[in-house]
Amino acid sequence: MKIAKLLGMAAAVSMVTGSLYAGTSKMDFAKTYEKECQGCHGPIHQGGVGSDLRPKALKKKNAQMLADTILNGREGTAMPSWKHMFSRDDAAGMVDWLMNWKNTVELKLSLDEVKKTWKKLADRDALYKKYPKPVDVKDVKDIVFATERDASLVDFIDGTTGKVLSRHKAGFAVHVTVTNKRMPRYAYSISRSGRLTMFDLNAPGQPAIASVQVGQESRGLAVSPDGKYVMAGDYNPGGAVLCDAKTLEPLKVYPTSSVIDPDGNIGPSRVAYIADTPYAPYFSFALKDAGHVYIVDYSKPDFPIVGDIPNIGKILHDAFENEGVDYGRFVYVASQGSDLMGVIDLKTKKLAAKIYTGPGTKPHPGQGSSWHNDKYGQLNATNSMNVGNVVIWNMNNEVVANVPTAGGGLFVGTSKDTPYIWSDCVLGGPANYNKVYLINKQTLKTDRIIEVGKKKGHLIDAHTGKILQTWDATQYQTVKGKEKASKLSKEKLVTYTPKKGKKVKHPVQPRLLHAEPANHGKWTFISEWTTGRIGIYDAKTGKFIKYIYNMTTPTFTYSVEHRQEIPGA
């Protein structure tokens, strides 16, 4: 049976199950869970960033208290308040649905079934010959990717002007977009709904040229430095899929439906991060629930697993690699269930160290940060989800600083062109999730804070509290684009307009996340999830420059050049 049919069956069963417990609520609990809750609590409710929500784990819990948690959130954790979209009846209904949920369909990864979903959307060879140079920009490395989460779009933006070049339907909540390091005209995106898409950045409108459904829910993505292979990771069905980077033809699957977890139990595991490295012909990826990291050698026949590093910790998640000496040799992987960063040595294929980030911190490095410090040498950093804290360590795996921020964050990033590492506070609650901290890479102290209010934005000197800059942060209604057929690809594009809509009468608190540097080094892009725009800031000073408007819940931005230089990103 095709994956698409299996997914349809899963959705149908879920919807039927959901309707049994609706009570006075009209909410579709299965769809709401899939869209809003699944990312943290897992596709089969097994937990991760969030708690285990399977009936066995909930049976001793008080239903009213669980409903209160949905409505009010849980302070000091990644669990937000859902009052803005759940009524009391909705919350009670969701708890009832969770307590009676049954895992009626569990998918297993199959190469044959994945191959059946592989589609050619445009003639790659014809586009290659017709457009030897980029049409919409001077250099494809000037292109920045942006995700419009709830609109299921991936956008391509000219990183030198902020102009939106094109918007593509690429599956719900595109999670990662990466480029082919050997052939940067090709880019790839993976959505949480399991769709892997390949784009040609040279051609006008950056057309999609191939796609494949690698699973029901996916996260990680990486391209081999030799430009030959792309690998995607699945949450459900658990496993990883290796594809030809020129065509997206699926070549091999690595199922993780039956592995041993840190407690000795056998069961399925999601695949979290996937990373390539310039250090060796390897992909590495984390078995989120099993606490292992696998290493795949793509230079050998049949692409074997050549390393299996166990006992890293519970609930593995994001990872990044070191810069400097032995560039890409070490992989720093977050264990959110054990509050540590595991250090994988790709040379020895062993666990080199465990860096503890503090009780209840739940490290989340996102793209991570690695830079040279005059005192300590090469340093590395991760954000913490549950507390406002950026943890910094050296190449001896010793923590040298804990930098406080206003609240839990998801991303901490930098580049060679900025004196700062940029840390968001996106999980810090409405009073604090409108801030981004700019931490000096030499002093390891916060120098500046970007704070965007409902009507005004401020750049603040963190040492004196002095406001260094004020700008107009007036919010405008989103002007939605229309769908149109692509002239070069079998896809429908969504138009974009820079025209401002009407002023919003009741503005919301901006929610800032994912600071990403542009390739030219002058700008940093920061997404505003709740306001439908992306802010552009001066990379050296933090000063506001301008907004890109008319987006639906923008979450992540990715820079082609930055991804060229940061291995495994």
What does this structure look like?
The chain is mainly β and 569 residues long. 54% of the residues are buried. It is globular, with a radius of gyration of 22 Å. β7 (195-200) and β8 form a beta hairpin. A six-stranded antiparallel beta sheet has the order 27-28-29-30-31-32, with no helix packed on it. A five-stranded antiparallel beta sheet has the order 1-8-7-6-5. It has a four-stranded antiparallel beta sheet with strand order 4-3-2-39. The model is unreliable at 1-22 (pLDDT under 50).
Reconstruct the topology from this structure.
Elements (H helix, E strand, L loop, with lengths): L2 H17 L9 H13 L13 H4 L4 H10 L15 H12 L11 H6 L2 E2 L3 H7 L12 E6 L4 E6 L5 E6 L4 E6 L6 E6 L3 E6 L7 E6 L3 E7 L5 E8 L2 E6 L5 E6 L3 E2 L5 E2 L3 E6 L5 E6 L4 E6 L7 E5 L6 E6 L8 E6 L4 E6 L4 E7 L6 E11 L3 E8 L4 E6 L4 E6 L7 E2 L6 E5 L10 E6 L5 E7 L3 E6 L5 E6 L10 E3 L6 E3 L17 E6 L5 E6 L4 E6 L5 E5 L5 E6 H6 L4
- What does the largest sheet look like? 6 strands, antiparallel
What's the end-to-end separation, in Å?
34 Å
Category from helices, strands and their pairing: mainly beta
Radius of gyration in whole Å, from Cα? Answer: 22 Å
Number of separate strands? 39
Taking pLDDT < 50 over at least 5 consecutive residues as the criterion, the unreliable ranges are 1-22
Q: Please count the helical segments.
A: 8
Our estimate of the beta-strand percent is 35-45%
Helix content: 10-25%
Average the pLDDT over all residues and give the rounded result.
Answer: 90
Order of strands in the sheet with most strands: 27-28-29-30-31-32
What global shape is seen? globular
